Amino acid sequence: MTRPGEHVVSYNSEPFDIISSRPLKRNLEAMQRYDIAIVGAGPGGLACAIKARQLGLRYVLLEKGGRVFQGIIDSYPRGKKVYPTIPRSESGPFPIPELEPSADNEPVEEYIAKIEACVQKLGIEIRFNEDFQDLVKEKGGFQVVTRTGRYAARNVVLAFGSNIPIDLGVYGEAKTVARKLDNTEEHIGAPTLVLGGGNAAADVVSTLSKAKRAAGDSTPIYWGHRKEQFKVNKEVARDLGEEILLGGNIKILVGAVPKIGEVDEEGVERLIIHTRNIHIGKGVELQQGMSFPMKHVIACIGTQGPAPVFERLGLQQITCTEGICRIGKEGARLILLTAACQTTTRGVYTIGGAISPVHIVVQDEGSFRETKHSNLIFTAVRDGVTAVEDIARRLAEEKET
Ligand SMILES: Cc1cc2nc3c(=O)[nH]c(=O)nc-3n(C[C@H](O)[C@H](O)[C@H](O)COP(=O)(O)OP(=O)(O)OC[C@H]3O[C@@H](n4cnc5c(N)ncnc54)[C@H](O)[C@@H]3O)c2cc1C
Questions:
Q1: Average pLDDT in the 171-184 region?
Q2: Which of 69, 72, 381 maximizes ligand 1 atoms within 8 Å of its Cβ, making it the mutation to test the pocket?
Q3: Which of 43, 121, 285, 397 is most buried per CB count within 10 Å?
Q4: How many domains does the chain have?
């Protein structure tokens, strides 16, 4: 309950007095004004903070979770190996060596422990449980609004990843499905369906297969993908191949399309997938499918970029249309950025997973280039360093004028 004289904060507005409804006058000079507010303490956001510290810039790093790299903690299966992959089109080394996963592909728990030690050693301050809500433009910068506070900053880097899960797109009442492997033990002794054709799904399949083998469990893991081809990188494929050769019971289902989420007579939530259509003539099809208890389904079908958030913040995007975009899918909204990841709103940058897998680079002469952006730790770190160097350069130029 708000009492007279207390503030409430609204989107896109100054705090206002609940009684008079007039904006409260703030003495901004008295508020700490940061050179950079960084939203998200993943690899991209942490790289920004480390670089800002190296360059002597005042920064605030805001993270909605309770730990550094919360996004990775939430999305990687337990024990997953972390690869220091560098995209083929780029050359290393990692711009911030402390953030590089080890060459022997350490498990995620070890990588996180190393990152926490690095945060401690470098004295990087992180404000946890700060859930970013909005950006308010004001003279000389922005106010970054979180659920619980406001931060004044001259520049903002949005490093919140791409964590909006893609919908499974099934009919029916049962729709809640796991997005990652929380606990391998829950799947021991039961066939499990893993959906998705990329690295995340492949990782879950090999991690789960290893756990089942270790427990002497021969129940299968069905790996289903709606397309005919799976797309995984070399290291992930190697792990998966090893798992199969070592006796992992992995059954591949291509053309497997999730169709219905239903609750059966016993009250069990189930997912029905179509696995095959056989045309038997005159428009009649014989359809084959499988039904799994929802609790043994893991859908690693990816996340969509934060286009709706960018839209709400008024950051310019363009919509892909057929014949114009070669990489982006038709209908996808692609954010417009400079080569240093600055959006068309001066002072607002966005980096890492948030701008993957593709965005538009506005070149100096004003032309647009659709640019592929691999969603990797390396790329996020590289973007963070590039953005902060650009901010430092602009701040120095502003000082001179
Ligand atoms: C299963 C899986 C396996 C992968 N394996 C590898 C690998 O082996 N090697 C590799 O290089 N890459 C791998 N990747 C990709 C890699 O993890 C990402 O490219 C990288 O984490 C992107 O970094 P980021 O900082 O942009 O975003 P994230 O890591 O997603 O970090 C974003 C941070 O922002 C926080 N946040 C989100 N919303 C808000 C908000 N509203 N307010 C405040 N904070 C917010 C999140 O909690 C999170 O901590 C994998 C990805 C997945 C899903």
A1: 82
A2: 72
A3: 43
A4: 2
Same domain, 36 and 160: yes
Across 96-105, b (16+ Cβ under 10 Å) vs e yields bebbbbeeeb
Kindly report the protein residue whose alpha carbon is nearest to atom 22 of ligand 1.
353
Instruction: Extract the tokens encoding 171.
Output: 């009919």
- CATH code, domain with 209: 3.50.50.60
Strand partners for 263? 269
Out of 299, 329, 346, pick the residue that ends a domain: 299
* Residues in CB range of 391: below 8 A, 6 or more apart: 35, 36, 52, 57, 155, 157, 349
- Average pLDDT, integer, range 39-68: 97
What distance in angstroms lies between residue 109's CA and the mean position of ligand 1's atoms?
15
Q: Check whether residue 158 and residue 250 sit in a common domain.
A: no
Which of 60, 63, 86, 298 maximizes ligand 1 atoms within 8 Å of its Cβ, making it the mutation to test the pocket?
Answer: 63
Q: Could you identify the residue written with the tokens 């609940």?
A: 18
173 occurs within a structural domain: no
Q: Is residue 7 part of a domain?
A: no
- Judged against a pLDDT cut of 90, whether residue 327 lies above it is answered with no
Which structural domain, as residue segments, surrounds residue 68?
Answer: 31-164+319-400
CA of 44 to the centre of ligand 1 (A): 8
Residues with CB under 6 A from ligand 1: 39-45, 62-65, 69-72, 75-76, 82-83, 85, 130-132, 159-161, 163, 199-200, 203, 352-354, 375-378, 380
Cα distance between residue 308 and residue 285, in whole Å: 39
Ligand 1 atom nearest to 180, measured from its CA: 1
pLDDT (tens digit per residue) in 131-155: 898 999 999 999 999 988 999 999 9
Residue 142 contacts by C-beta under 8 Å, 6 or more apart in sequence? 37, 135, 136, 152, 153, 154, 155, 156, 347, 348
Model-wide pTM > 0.90: no
Q: What secondary structure letter does DSSP report for 80?
A: -
Q: Which of 299, 331, 349 is the last residue of a domain?
A: 299
